[in-house]
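Batch manifest line 507
LIGAND: adenosine-5'-diphosphate
JOB: complex structure
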Amino acid sequence: MAEKQKYVAAIDQGTTSTRCMLFNQQGMPVYSSQLEHKQQYPKPGWVEHDPLEIWERTQDVVRDVIRKAQCSPSDIVSAGITNQRETVVAWNPDTGKPYYNAVVWQDLRGKDYIDSLIHQGGIDLLRDKTGVPLSPYFAGSKIHWLTEHVDEIRRAVSGGGRICFGTIDSWLIWNLTGGVSGGAFITDVTNASRYLMMDIASFSWNAELAETFGVKPEHLPEIRPSIGDCYGYTRRDGPFGGEIPLCGILGDQQAALFGQACFQVGQGKNTYGTGCFLLVNTGEEMPVSKHGLLTTAAYQEKGKKPVYALEGSIAVAGSLVQWMRDSIGLVDSAPAIDRLAETVDDNGGVYFVPAFSGLFAPYWESGARGLIAGLTGFAGAAHLARAVLEATAYQTKDIFDAMEKDSGVPIQELRVDGGMSKSEPLMQFQADMLQVPVIRPEVQETTALGAAYAAGLSRGFWESYDDLADHWKEDKRWSPHMDISRRDEYLSQWHKAVERSKGWAES
Ligand code: ADP
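JOB STATUS: finished
ARTIFACT:
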């Protein structure tokens, strides 16, 4: 009798939706289920999610995928989690209830406190300790805001009740492994490195930094390796319907790096989703960025040294396409922006700086705001569509340059993934801006794949990193065609527009 098919499950809790996918031993996705959740914008610059809705959607997609696969829990070797990073949930472990909505990574409400710290010691005040610049992007500023503005949270952190602060991985694992009856309160090194509170050399919480952001290390999850560790088992009465070992956690961008099999020093990827994130594996030595990039954990296997990455983060990429679709009505679907852009040869002089949440790497300007520059009567909807796509390519180019300067090594090619990597005009323009080939793999669900790889490696479903690297297959490649002088003209106009966007929100 043929052996029964076994799977590894990945839960991918993203900014706009939650997915559960089952992968087979060849690393191919075989079953998938996905549900969106509500984006809440209570004030300009604020973005929230309902943590209970996210937990509901997670259970729904897990149940749906198990139903589609018609498999029993014993067919699932292990499960991994990947998640939107920096988004903070504060909950009461006695009741299982969140104290407040999740404050999402794009949310800027921590800006005033961050500005006061920058005023004391500059943007790199905590960079030596944490690897990152001061920015309201990171979890610490959101935690601080919650401790200052939500009475119940303020009371709980000063001893009047129990409280857990965690990123979405922690919230889901706590719920999956038992919730109020003893759920595991943990996170992994990749998520912990996004708090502004973790010591980036020792991978432990720094009590002084925790205090800077209004909490104590005991309010924060235990930091564990991303791979090779078992965090607990899913509850029998939970969505998997059985006890599945949870043994892989990677923040979404680190998961994509892992899913793209970037295991060698110098290998990197760019994920074009809601935002856009370029990460390059830098090995076991801690890299120091002098050009506005982040030092972050790439992954850690239990019993081994953590592997680092340099990262450039862009806040607004695919979400600009969504905004053009939903708020402005320029197009009625995301792919329609490609078709519209392809009706003209160039941007007609139009540049769009999408600084809706300020500008992230390598500029770190939280006071920047969005602008459209270079408008003339000649410009039409198609030029605007091109400017929307090009904005992501220019921002990626700026990060790519910073990456080369920091590492001192030229990057030979860029592996890409994410929803926006389906855009032909963007990918071609990206290759033209970078002047290196841009390559998309066959399996484009690299984020979920990375979480599955972490969980599968932990249980011997895959033997080695070489096994995983063998799965990686090229789907499509874009080579540069544009001549350098034309490329440089585009970049110089883009940088002029970026300068104009800076400081707009400063009083
Ligand atoms: P996330 O995981 O961050 O939710 P995805 O990787 O699913 O995001 O990518 C979705 C994003 O990609 C959306 O913001 C959407 O606007 C954009 N997108 C999807 N298809 C295209 C396309 N053909 N052209 C341009 N943008 C696209």
